[in-house]
Amino acid sequence: MNKIDMKHYGLSPRFLAEATLYEGQTVGRIISQHKDLYKVVCENGFLSAEVSGKFRFEVKYLSDYPAVGDFVMLDRDADENGNAIIHRVLKRKSAFIRKAAGTSKEEQIVAANIDIVFLCMSMNNDFNLRRLERYLSIAWDSGAIPVIVLTKSDLCEGIEEKLAEVEQIAIAVQTLVTSSMSEDGYQQVLAYMKAGQTVAFIGSSGVGKSTLINRLLGENLIATKGLRNDDKGRHTTSRRELFLLAQGGMVIDTPGMRELGLESADLARAFADIDELSKECRFRDCTHTKEPGCAVQKAIEEGSIPAARLESYRKLKKEAKYEGLNSREIETEKINEMFREVGGIKNARRMVSDKNRNRR
Fold first, then answer.
1. In this structure, are residues 50 and 86 in contact, taking their beta carbons and an 8 Å threshold?
2. Helix, strand, or coil here: 236?
3. What is the number of H-type helices and E-type strands within the chain?
4. Is the pTM of this model over 0.85?
5. For residue 255, which of 200, 185, 215, 187 has the smallest C-alpha distance?
6. Cβ neighbours of residue 55 under 8 Å, at least 6 residues apart?
7. Rounded to an integer, what distance in angstroms lies between the CA atom of residue 193 and that of residue 197?
8. Best label site of 23, 77, 188, 202, fewest CB within 10 Å?
9. pLDDT tens column, 142-182
């Protein structure tokens, strides 16, 4: 039987080193999920898998469960005698996270271990700068590199004007303009595909994500439908799935997400212009409302920053529970969230210090 080279599926020395800690188990990568059942690729082929009862009992958060793109440890490398059992998820290098539907606190992993996240938005009915700011905030926070893909340029009037609007808010982010109707409309996206790297396509339903992926795959593996006349996308992709491209690299297709709730966001990078201007405000805790000497309000009066952008910043800051915090305090809050199980970063440092002291 021909072995699968897992390097093609992104199995790097970093994941291999962690996998060696679990003797007698096999490392695999999740390539699709449907409810509680996963499809996994490993060295000996493809198999179905489910999490162990112990795993299910011990997890604390929805985001602890395996997601498409995760590397996992399995009890076997074949499923002839039933589904393989997933015992653990290897530490993620990146994760695109959204607030789970119907909850106020739970997080849901959209895609894991991605290198580049393509934020797709059509240039006709779906065009929305405020939604794009939200996507960018989460993308920067994920650990992956965001790239904006503006689709359906053939259906848009005033392309240059819209592109200028996007570039004003997408600071230090590459922006691609494509047309799904053109045979070579995917070439710009194709240039980002590298062997061993994983990219994910995120965006509303019907904006052309699946069409672009089909062109990258060279065949129509994913059903596609466009935006309806009422500007609501058809949910053609019902599950997340990872595909290996013939030319190298992997792509993850995701269900359309018109609304994207967030629990955490990198506002300093998504709103780098506001963050930089904040340093010039007279007061360090400036709220950019009525304080004298506010550099942000001055920029709005001069027309260099739209008032709607500041309002979007405030809204996302409040939603991500960062209201009233400056950029440095936000970073501290994020670090404390990472160490929440041990009582925050101060307790984590104390524990490390105690361990080092005991070793002497």
1. yes
2. coil
3. 12, 13
4. no
5. 200
6. 86, 87, 88
7. 7
8. 23
9. 999 999 999 888 777 888 899 999 999 999 999 998 875 55
